[in-house]
């Protein structure tokens, strides 16, 4: 008698728990991955939830973790700063599209040199990071910057100590620009650095660059702006020296050939446009083409549609860059063709 | 004693209940002790199994090579192992004498009113989170090292033959020497509070008789206090060493996290704990992750060897001291 009563209580409790879980699932979608996109994604989802739509629960565990989680099917979407190759996507049954942009910006700490004063070219940058250019008054740097008084100061390279999408875009650019870099170091979210010290996260690199005289490092654009760091100008593929700015990143996005990139598998570094910034970075979203729960996938796509079409002001406030309309249209038609969320 | 007397007087059922209570107590206490062993053994085992593919793939080269390349997927452990050991040695070279000085001062020299507050302050230092030491290290200590200490070392000791290589290099301020000093500051509270506590346990008659025989304070410390407390002092030192070997946050701030082998103490390096903390979340290939787990196992073994050596030293000291534990 007593046992039956306990069983009954357990069954009721179980049903309630399952019911509660289901009710929650309808109002909430989950994602995991890139730490870079976390600030803007959390702002978007807060606003989206405030408007009474659904809650987006995002865990910034890193791009590698995001890919692993979506492959394991534990989240509704993954976010990665490094695009997956179409073959890998097909094997996992995933679709991929870009969501928001940023950029990698070289920052320096040289006494007497202010933001936007030092000019660098891709090959010079590669030689600095290869450890071949060792001092700031190296002839190659002096020739690029005739108007600046460059000191006889040792260059200290600062890189990321953790694996990162920021690093991926940086070394992807160096590999495109310098055959020696490509052969000796290569590209990935982490590499074997020929020289320098490693800081954890953008904040770690920024702290090292601020502390070490004669240092050069790379951080996300938003981080440069918010911390007023000393950025440099960088020569793009068209030959002009560009300042990191929203307009320059959008120029890179517009000049990149998204239309012919299968599954948007494109890294926007060294973009061809005359005004394009050379190391623009993209966060990609990964979702299943045949989602297990079509309703949830539909809610996720509705959220991403809202961010692409209405989220620009919020991303701009956090110094992220939205895609131009032409790219947004391509993304939306890609959804219609590839993600079966109905 | 009184318990056994009482149980003898109790009626049979109550005595049996009591004996059953004893058995239960022994079981619970034994299980608690076994749990520690089981956790230790299982942790070692799971790290060994997790890291096995890396050991198999790289073989002995895993311990002797200096490359760490996520692109070509070649991982070896010499740089982080070397960094871990060197920073811990530097830390102990500084922390042991300083802690000894603190403990002797507080117990033998300082006026009585000073002992309690200074002792409390030291214990408070032990409670400061390691990230605070790391940030202080990076923002305050690193600039000091790079402006004053490193250039001075490079110009003086760095010019000497043989040991010069240890002290020459660019004055970054970030490197193994700085990490070792920060670690020393972190472990001093642990070692000195153990030393202080055990020094206070020396029976006053021993100390007083030595003084009565005309011994100076130093002689009392050397010939009465230290021999009496030797094992506990060594234990305290190895507690500090264990912490220095495994410290992560503070080290990663000031060590430079560079997988580059350099003999110079002024050069940036890496440590096992720092490498794992930095890289594990984004280790995107299986062998990368396995190599990091293998590093964890190596740290486990290194710590085990260090503690075993400590135990052996203790035994030898105890024997030399005539069987006193």
How does this structure look, described?
The complex is a heterodimer of chains A (342) and B (325). Chain A has helices at residues 2-27, 38-50, 63-72, 86-92, 122-130, 139-144, 165-177, 179-184, 201-211, 221-226, 246-255, 294-310, 312-317, 325-338, and strands spanning 28-33, 55-59, 77-80, 94-109, 119-120, 156-160, 197-199, 215-220, 233-235, 241-242, 280-288. Chain A has 342 residues and is of the alpha/beta class. Chain A has an 8-stranded mixed beta sheet. Chain A has a 3-stranded mixed beta sheet with strand order 5-9-10. The longest helix of chain A is centred in the N-terminal third of the chain and has 26 residues, at 2-27. Chain A is elongated. Mean pLDDT of chain B is 87; it is low at 1-5. Chain B folds into 2 domains: 1-56; 61-321, Orthogonal Bundle (MetI-like fold). In chain B, strands 1-2 form a two-stranded antiparallel sheet. Chain B is globular and about 75 Å long. The chains are: A alpha/beta (342), B mainly alpha (325). Chain A binds chain B through residues 61-65, 67, 154, 156, 161-164, 185-193, 195-200, 207-208, 211-213, and chain B through 67-72, 138-139, 142-143, 146, 170, 172-174, 252, 256-260, 268, 274, 277-279, 281-284.
């Amino acid at each position: 008698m007593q046992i039956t009563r306990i069983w009954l209580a357990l069954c009721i409790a179980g049903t309630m728990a399952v019911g509660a879980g289901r009710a929650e699932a309808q109002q909430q979608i989950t994602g995991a991955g890139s730490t870079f996109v976390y600030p803007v994604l959390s702002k978007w989802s807060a606003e989206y939830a405030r408007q009474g739509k659904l809650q987006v629960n995002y865990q910034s565990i890193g791009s590698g973790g995001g890919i692993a989680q979506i492959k394991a099917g534990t989240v509704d979407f993954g976010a990665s700063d490094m695009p997956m190759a179409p073959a890998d996507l097909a094997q996992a049954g995933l679709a991929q599209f870009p969501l928001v942009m940023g950029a990698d910006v070289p920052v320096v700490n040289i006494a007497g040199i202010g933001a936007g004063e030092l000019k660098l070219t891709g090959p010079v940058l590669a030689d600095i990071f290869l450890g071949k250019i060792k001092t700031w008054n190296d002839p190659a740097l002096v020739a690029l910057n005739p108007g600046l008084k460059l000191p006889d100061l040792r260059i200290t390279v600062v890189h990321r100590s953790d694996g990162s999408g920021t690093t991926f875009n940086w070394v992807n650019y160096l590999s495109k620009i310098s055959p020696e870099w490509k052969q000796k170091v290569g590209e990935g979210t982490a590499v074997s650095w020929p020289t320098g010290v490693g800081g954890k996260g953008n904040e770690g690199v920024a702290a090292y660059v601020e502390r070490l005289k004669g240092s050069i490092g790379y951080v996300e654009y938003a981080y440069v702006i918010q911390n007023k760091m000393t950025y440099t100008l960088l020569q793009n593929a068209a030959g002009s020296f560009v300042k990191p700015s929203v307009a320059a990143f959008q120029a890179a996005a517009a000049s990149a050939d998204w239309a012919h990139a299968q599954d948007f598998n494109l890294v926007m570094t060294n973009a061809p446009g005359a005004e394009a910034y050379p190391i623009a970075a993209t966060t990609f979203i990964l979702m299943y083409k045949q989602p297990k729960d079509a309703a949830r996938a539909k809610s996720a796509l509705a959220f991403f549609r809202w961010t692409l079409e209405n989220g620009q002001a919020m991303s701009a406030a956090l110094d992220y860059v939205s895609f131009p309309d032409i790219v947004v249209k391509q993304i939306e038609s890609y959804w219609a063709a590839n993600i079966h969320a109905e | 004693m009184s318990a056994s007397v009482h149980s003898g007087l109790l009626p049979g059922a109550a005595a049996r209940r009591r004996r059953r209570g004893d058995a239960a107590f022994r079981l619970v206490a034994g299980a608690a002790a076994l749990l520690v062993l089981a956790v230790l053994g299982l942790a070692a085992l799971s790290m060994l199994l997790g890291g096995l593919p890396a050991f198999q793939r790289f073989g002995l080269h895993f311990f002797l090579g200096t490359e760490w390349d996520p692109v070509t997927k070649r991982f070896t452990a010499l740089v982080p192992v070397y960094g871990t050991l060197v920073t811990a040695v530097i830390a102990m070279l500084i922390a042991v004498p300083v802690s000894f000085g603190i403990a002797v001062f507080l117990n033998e020299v300082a006026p009585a009113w000073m002992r309690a507050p200074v002792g409390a302050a030291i214990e408070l230092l032990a409670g400061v989170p390691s990230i605070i030491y790391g940030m202080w290290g990076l923002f305050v200590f690193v600039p000091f090292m790079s402006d004053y200490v490193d250039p001075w070392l490079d110009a003086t000791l760095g010019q000497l033959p043989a040991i010069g290589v240890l002290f020459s290099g660019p004055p970054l301020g970030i490197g193994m020497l700085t990490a070792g000093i920060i670690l020393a500051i972190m472990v001093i509270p642990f070692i000195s509070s153990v030393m202080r506590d055990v020094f206070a346990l020396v029976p006053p008659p021993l100390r007083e008789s030595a003084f009565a025989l005309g011994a100076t304070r130093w002689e009392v410390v050397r010939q009465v206090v230290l021999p009496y407390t030797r094992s506990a002092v060594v234990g305290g030192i190895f507690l500090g060493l264990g912490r220095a070997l495994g410290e992560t946050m503070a080290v990663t701030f000031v060590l430079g996290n560079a997988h580059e082998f350099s003999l110079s103490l002024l050069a940036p390096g890496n440590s096992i704990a720092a490498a794992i903390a930095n890289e594990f979340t984004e280790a995107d290939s299986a062998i990368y992750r396995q190599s990091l787990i293998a590093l964890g196992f190596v740290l486990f073994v290194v710590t085990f060897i260090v503690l075993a050596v400590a135990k052996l030293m203790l035994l030898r000291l105890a024997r030399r001291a005539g069987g006193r534990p």
